[in-house]
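Protein modeling request. Please complete all fields; requests missing the sequence field cannot be processed.
Requester role: graduate student
Desired output: 3D structure, token encoding
Chains: 1
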Amino acid sequence: MLTSEQSDKWAQFILREQASPSAAFDILYEHGSGRFVGAVTHLTAIAARDEPGSKRARLRALSLIGQVFVFRTARALTLRTLETKKLDQGDIALLTTLIRENIRLLGAL
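Delivered output (109 residues):
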């Protein structure tokens, strides 16, 4: 979804709210992104043996989320770096594999 051109309008709205939060950001956070970050924080804290809810656990979760979001927020940089006009299914499959490897590495910490 994050690499899809069909999500452009949604992504632009989310990015606009990140750059200049309005009342909409509070709604998005309370009903979506905050819950998602909370779940990722909880799971990564377990995997990395961090104290749940700690600043360390929250920062670790955000760093993992950033690995995925960079492909939406820095799409032009991604495409130029990969010397392509569009990510294909092979790129997305490899990206998925690499992110899963990064998550598995948490268990080795």
